[in-house]
Structures
1.
Amino acid sequence: GSFNQNRKGIRSSQAILLSALEPFIQYTMTLQFPTTCPHGIGQSAVYLPDKKKVVVIGGTDGGNHALGYTQILDLTTGQWSNGPQLNTPRYDLAAVYCQSQSKIYAIGGSDSEELNSIEILDAGGNIGSSTWTALPSQYILQRPRVASAAVLIVDRFLVVMGGYANSSPIDTVEILDIQTCVQHKGPSMSRPRGDYGATVVGNKIVACGAPEQVQAQEHGELEFIEFNINATTVYELFPQSAQWKIHPTLKISFSDIPQLFSLDPKADSFLAIGSQVVELVELENAKVPISQCSFSIDRGYSAAVLLPANQQLYPAGILAIGGNRDPTSMEWLPLPDDIHVRLKKYQTGKIPDFPPLPPKPTISTNPKQLKSSLQQWVQKAESILTDYMAHVEEWKDQEEKLCQDQCSTLQEKIDQLRAQQNNLTTTSTARAKKYVGRCKHEIGSIRGITESLGRGQTVADALAKLQEDGPPHELCCPITFELMTDPVVIESGHTYERAAITQHWETQETSGIPVTCPSTNQQICSKKLTPSLLARSLCRQWQEEHSGWHP
């Protein structure tokens, strides 16, 4: 409303006050999200904060027919648009967004058959004109996964967990370094899980949900595993002692398929979103969920995203897209005040929301009532600000401790790398000396054969003399230079002594470098060892024919 011209002083003062407080007032809903969406059950959705868009991927038509489309919701206009088609239509897939690379990853799922492929969409430019690209076959998942969960750690390490394989839930974990495409096996979960949710909370991955086959009291249980937030390779992400643990006391109250969203990367809180109920959970400080809100209808098998507040458009809330009850509907659920306040508490770069200002005065406003309303507002604002400053100090202490811990971790890593370097140097020196000794021995043998031929001996006698000097190099391990007793073939096609190649790979992994073939120095994707029956037979035959030979 407008002010009476006789109240210019009040008008001027309140204008200044509103201008100063405008960034701190809780945002109201001015953007109207559409209430309908493209048909969707079993699809996946990702939020692109730098693009202000939501991308919905795949899904099913309600049967077993997989959909290959991509749909894009512009959060500034509330309009849907079509995106590129997947190379392989899929539903019950996992999806993550890497903001530093502006790429979306679509992982596994089903198209009537279980999939282990991964597709990438470049979202750096116009998403609608981009195309999905399948990762090469050497970088696909080690096994197909349907209804698995995936998280992205420090915008680099893609961790894919659980899911269904051969229609049964599994507990295995795979890690892919999206910068180097190095793959590694992670610690298995405490129990097989499919149709469940996972998120990153601080330095932990938290998972919740379980298949229907487990006991009812296990549906709402939480399990978590700690990771190394300073990891630079997949081999450093989880310490050797890391294992999944069931939270001893905390459970969510609903038993249907949850989706989990962290409120803030540094907070210990997250939202568990079920088919109808949404709960706020604090991992460390609570034994039960501390807040709830609900959708208007059952949203099972929908795709949900958590949207932070967007000034002048919408407050923080959850956008649920599709679902088996109404596949073409969409629902916007604003976060309740208590969840909203806790969300702001962890974002120390922003002042928390102040209470709404009293109504603007008019010509008929009672001055005493106006004064009382303003005093009450000031008291509430001071209380919020005092609480906020206390959290700032608490957060400052946590940041200082985190920096100290990171410095200690880095120093330990430096010491560890130095020890590994010394160990590798010692090992390499020993191998080099052994190799030189073997070469000298073979050179001496060849000279002896030459001298024997010069004295008139037959070629057969010379070759017999050569065999007496040691086994042929084809039967010796390229690492130990000794006759093999348990030869195995690796991915590159080269043959090694089983114990020698296993120790070689363990040394590489401990040093944080990718495993390679020692003969070619090329990186390999699989550490599978295949026994070489022919090489074993030849080695045993040579050993039986030269029983008196000793190295």
Note: The chain is about 30% helix and 25% strand.
2.
Amino acid sequence: MRASTCRILAAKDSIGARGQQRLLSVVAWGRNAEGQCGTAGNVSPLVLHPSVVAELEGQDIVSLSAGSLNSAAVASDGTCYTWGSGKGGKLGHGNSSDITTATRVESLVGRTELQRVALGLNHTLFLDQSGSAWSCGDNKEGQCGFGTSLEVLAKQRRQEWNLSVQMAKFAQGIAQEYVETLQVKDSSLPSPAQHAAAASHLFSGSGGETKQPSLGRQAMAPKLLDHSAQARELEQTREMVAGGLGMSELSADSHFGNFGKGSSKQGTDPVKVALGCVDTHSRAMGCIPGHHTTPMRMGHDEHGLLAAAHGKRDGQQESQPEERGIGSKRIVDIAASNHFSMLLTDAGEVYTCGGGFNGELGHSSSWLTSASQVEGHVRQALLDNGGATAVACGATFSVALTASGRVVVWGGIAGCKPPPEARRAGGVVVAEVMGLPPISHISTGHHHAILSDGDRVWTMGTWLDKNGRRVGTEWGVPKELEGLPRDGIRCISAGARASAAVTDKGDLYMWGCLMAEDNARALVQQATGVTKSAKESAAWMWEGMGGDNGPQKIPWLPPVHSVQLGAAHVLALVH
């Protein structure tokens, strides 16, 4: 979601001995439950100190991206690495599995060389060195820009619902057969009928809000799985699931691989294990409609693969890829949000695609499946200022830096009034940020943006302080950030609820809330069962987890070249 502009510097340390250049290192900290920190030697759900991303050592990394629950890096040779949450296929590895180590996107090797990556909620944009944009992940709002028709998107939603029903039935069968096997040994276990009803209830629940029926899991857990004599039945269940999914076997780290090991995620309830196993492997195999697990080039509506997936029959005339909008343009910048994407051409034109109901698309339509140029007051504001030179997008708003150094914003933030000088037309609110010197850097979080002229930093919108309290300024009305030294600003980055700036001296400053203590405590407890407060560790008080009173200089770090903030984790390129 976040996008930032930094000065283009060689990602090498020029202070190496005898004039030799030394590659920089990537370090990470923060939330790591999905592996987004990429620290192979630290599997903790929370990384409380900077840890090196070992798989990137020896690589000449020139660009970093931190998303909500995933990360990406690009090397000078155009190779791309992604890791973290793979939901929707957004990592580009051909599946939807989480990956805990930085892994090269093999599907792009030999096809193109990249220069940067933008991470949305469940989709990813790739910008190659020739000026073409690629995308992968969840496309159910059209955010991947493949030009998928609304009819097909609607069909995919129906297919996903039908698939969820089939998965629920299959999981019921697994749970029922498993419990019937063990029922013979222990009559106190819940009946197959209870488990079948629970499976249906759990799977059709509304995002976890529906209260789960009590099956006496705490009482039944030791009886189910604490005895090695039951290993045979468990192995039979695993084989049954693998056969039903059309797989030779289930991986050792799957939900069934955790049977009898006290898995903190699924516990020992066969119903939940069955549901989790079916759902996880279906998503991992890319079976969910509307999920594209390998990158495809944007701007070519109706790809051959998509046409086949959408039901083109033999004998029908094959539609040729049609270049529309950005297909014939050279792209120079990209940005990705929850459900929409932004692209900037070398002519200073801004294109958007996806879904948005707050005017963030800069278009009269709230749903665009092909990248379309912004229109109306948004386009005029950009033209009046010489065209755009950089783009960024928050959860429900968009920002563009123009050639004149002025910033144009459109869309909206819940609870924030638009600035007095804003113009409204066709449901789109657009404003030029006034009263600032020429801006050179922009970056956006969920509900805030930060701007810099290379010397000072301004903020607008809302974010959270370290105690989880909402703070900030009026939307579209920037306020200068106090507490930063006048050392020159090399790079800025806005995360979900925190922000950061790197000075020309290589010092890193952070403010806002990277991750609240109660959230961190719950995360650790969920993963480990430990109920102690995260604050008991002195590391929790480290400024790298957020600043209480404005910008805080981050200790323990060598000189920083650039930084990227995700929803609750940080990536930094250091000397």
Note: Residues 58 and 320 are 42 Å apart (CA to CA).
3.
Amino acid sequence: QLPAMAAAFAKRLLDAFVDAGLDRQQCDFDEAAGQMIINNDITRVVPIATLFAQYSLCADEAARSKLVDGAMKAFVEGAADVPSSIAETGDRLLPQLWNKQKIAARQMTLPAGFELPHCGLRGELPLDGDLGVVLVCDYGVDGLSIETPVLSKDLSRWGLSFTAALGKALENLRARTKKGPSADRRWEHHPTGCGESCWKDRFDAVRIAVFPKLVATRKRPDGVAEQGGHVVAFATTSCVLASMSKNALGLCFMGDTLNLQISLRDPKQLLTSIPMRLMKMKDPQSGSARHPLESTASEGMVWRWMPYSPGGPPLQSPGEFSVPVDQGEVDAILEAAENGRAVPVFTQTPKVASAVSAPTFLKMKEQGNSLFKAGEFMKAVSAYNAALREDGVPPADAAVVHSNAAQALLKTAEADPSVCKPLAAEALKRANEAVGLDPTNVKAYARCAAACDLLEEHEAAAEFRQHQARCQAAAEATQQARRAEAEQRRQQQEEQRKKMAAAMEEKARCDALLERERELERRRAKEDAGDLGQAEAARLSSMLGMDSTLAGMPARGVGGN
């Protein structure tokens, strides 16, 4: 939740909005998500946590009042709304990097039928990582920096697909990058060799993600050549850290900054705590149309971002070091380096969830499901708890198990009035835990609402059901968008096939025409050769005084009987 000062800032904003004529009942402050939703003719989302970060940097009350006035113009008067045409966006249309939790939370605020278009770092859907790319319109209102996300309705008004709009946004970001720091000033290096991005314009992270060459060409100012591959931490939108996989102290500084400073000081601004490895990989679409986020590394090769683990797949490179996740690991690395001992490598990092759940987790989860089906609800809860004790469980999988445990508790509470209230309270706690791990889990919201019903917290139940409806609508809109995107790709591929078939047909026609011309040339050559033979025979005949027809006859032998 937001700290007390941020909550006070949110109240000040709300009071300013009401003074400007907004009905207080139209404002829904979601403290857990750090945002305020204004349900007016146009639904607007006020990013309280982001605005408070700017508010806290104001030098005096005059600056703070100016920021509040700017927020009022942006979110009450609509100064920061997305323009009605693509031409009006100018150079303000930009890509931005959000984590999937923020994407899911924003989807839930949208009315039915609306969607937040997005894709993964290479254009994929659904996201196969923790980060996604969205489109925003960047505004400055009275010194206040605001990014308004582009929604599906905006793309419809513009008559553009998400991919086409993303292409324009990338052009704008490329132009902004060139106007920024020169190549030798794009990274500020710590003595350990770890570099920190220097644009500081809230687009550092997406810039590095979509233009990976900015990392590949990074050089230390001291000229020291480093071994290993590129490792990057997308800490916040304005802070990217980069080091090499065999630079133990550089990775130590990265982990300290990422996990002990940013994560603790400003957790709502954290993009992801999972460091990424930049790799060159064979281009799977060589020779075909590519997504604008597919970045060419060299002939037949493309750049790819993958979660980093020392010596991990796909390279299995020896001699790599880990990015520390807590103070103990940082201290162990520094102590080893200071005393000339081998630097420890920590392969089990609790903050980095494995991509696939452990077999024991899956076994206990299935055991819990079987017990639930058999009506052994409390035994099912015990099995679910055992599954969650396993290390490295992905958040989405853990959310499912917490939600299942909540349902088992609800079943028991409904069957036994003597323990109804305490079990309902525990069910609410478990379902809330599921929502925190995966904001897109529709069943978890339904179980929160059911628990509130048993606790006679009817207003809270209604609120959870509203979240459930929004989540369900967002999921359906996402599926619809995916189907539309798939249909668009199918049509593009079909059009490409037709063009290729037409081109091949034209080539065959040209080849046939060329062959006919060659055949005519061969015939003319033969005829010309025959004409020359007759002309030569006539010339010889005239020299010998013979009839030309005789000169052309074959000679006979002379003899007698």
Note: Residues 458-544 form the longest helix (87 residues).
4.
Amino acid sequence: GLCQDSVRTLSGLCRTSGGSSACMCQAETPAETVTINQQSVMATNGRSARNGSGLGDSHSNGHSNSKSGSMAESLTAGNLYHMALEAKPVLGDWFSIADTATRLGLAILAFYRHLLMQPLALLRFAHSWNLQWYGWKGVLLTLYLPILPFALMAAELIKRAGEYLPGAEPDWKMKGPGRVFFQRPDSFVASILWDFYLAVSVFSGSFLQYGDDKMALVHTLYDEICVKEYWYTLLDAAQARRPRQLATWDGRAAHDVGCGVASGGCNLVAKISDSYLGIGDKILKRGKAAGGDFDDLDDVQRLLEADPQYAGKQAVLCEFVSPSKAVTVSSEGFSNVHSLDIVTTRTKSGVKVLTVLLWTDCSDWSSHSCEAGYLIDVHSETIVAPTAWYSPYFAKQNSKLLGVRLPGVREACAKAVAAHEASELPWLTTVGWDAMITDDGASARAASKPSRARPLAHALPRTLPRARLAVDMRLTTEPLPACPPPPLAGVYFFEGNVAAYRTPRRIFLTPSITRAFFEEFRGEGSPVPS
């Protein structure tokens, strides 16, 4: 993902590093930065990143970010953060029969707490949830509300039996390269309990996160509002670094964005706007003379037009950014491809970091092919434990990176918190941010202006309910404040995700963590009774 030196003279978007003629493809430039008016997500009042932290200078949640220790403490979710960082199985090993039974039991207990304290809201949520996930059969499930966890478990047994029928469709969780995150335990009994747990925990955890908000519930199945372009607006509001977008695909035709496809010097990554788990991701190699795929927008048009996955689907095309070579982020024998998984959550004290995970030891260009996962401590920016609790796949990993320091993690967490704070979707209680450490932490600021300002609405899916967002989205050519000198290594963000499935894995890890979530988990989208 390195630009050629000549690109600098074309677009002013590259910078030299250490006198080298090569340069990293830069983040979205101010001329291309998407902004939204003050009634929506552009959080400029006291949160502009003049000091590079993403939290402003005197508005950092009451803490000075001149001291990294106090800054890290102000970023993390207190007791919730530490308990998740240090989690141990209550009984047996992770994903043993005892462990999966414990987690399932916690999810069931949470359901009955909801039923006792918020019966009408839970009924509304259950009706919409079951209808969305099970169709007309969901109406029957809702009739069994007092025993709904057991009805959901029965439905999982039926689904499991259906997997063995000839011509059965694979579960959506197992379709993409991210299937490692959903792998079942080896034990047959534990695998059944795991299926039960996933069904009940996502139901109970989603109600805890979102209450009975209908749009939030839609996002447990389909990203109607929170497509990739939406996350870009939040990241731009926080002045976080992200790969430059050079084109968009509207389902039928490709369109230049900013300086356009021909002006770049990097390969492109095409991503379907409302997709997940890397499904549909596509690398386009620049330079046909050297055996690549494209030179200009017409070539991109031809490539996407020929791919059935992109027919009628909105997509974004951004520059390919390479992982750091200077920082150790993977085990020996693997490339440095990796992903930082930062989960932010709304608590009584505001938006905080819940966990930071590293997905690494990847077999191809995407971190969805990872073979190892680790927990990172925000305070020390150090890998402290394997993610043995996340899925059975990672419970067996060979953890060779314990104790490795990852510079830039703390700053990335500040950006993630600021980006989450910039959202005014009241139900967006938790967000999972995907990012990567690079060898160049500089944000591109001095850039040529696009030939014309196009409304962002052109780049949004046609199904997006713009009236519901009620915002004025537009491109701006106003310069942004200059950033301080870059650190030795920087973090680039790729997107955010509604953390409907990531968060329940943390909520129901142990009884003490579940109790802490009910005590601390707060937000307009999560009306949890005390």
Note: The first strand starts at residue 2 and ends at 3.
